[in-house]
Design goal:
The N and C termini lie far apart (115 Å). A 3-stranded antiparallel β-sheet has the order 1-2-7, with no helix packed on it. With 169 residues, it is an alpha+beta fold. Among the domains are: 29 residues; 82 residues. The protein is rod-shaped and about 125 Å long.
Amino acid sequence: MGNHYTPHYTYQYPPQPYHSQPPTVTFYHPHEPHPHPHPRHKPKGLGSNGCLRCICCCYNCLLFVIVASFVISIFFLLHYQPEKPIYELKDFAVKRFDIRDMNLETEIAISVLAHNTNSKIELSYGDDNSIGVSYSGTKFCSGSFPPFEQPTKNTTIVVSVYVAHTKRH
């Protein structure tokens, strides 16, 4: 078994007539690597780093989320056209104001007009609300008003009475 050279070539049987050019026959030496039409390994370049690809993918996802949030916000603003509710103090009555032995007892009635000027947004005033009355750092009373729902384009009057006993030291 010596160094025997066997040519590798392609042919057709039966031979076909030549119309323009004869078919090319390629011979390869058995001990030499076969040439490839494309290189086996990509040359190291800008896009071949896996870490850089991951960072670019994360950046693109973050950019997509930011743009989508912006588009949704603009849609919400244009569709619903939200406006701030308007509050007016309608009535404020001090029913009791007693100072005895450095103790302050107060009873205050408050009426507030709440205007909802929105045409597509209803307002819900829940249990977690508060009103406080103070003067020069002294709190006279505080409390919460009853929860209620305010429909669109509506004015609601909220009336509450607050009683407080304050001890000064």
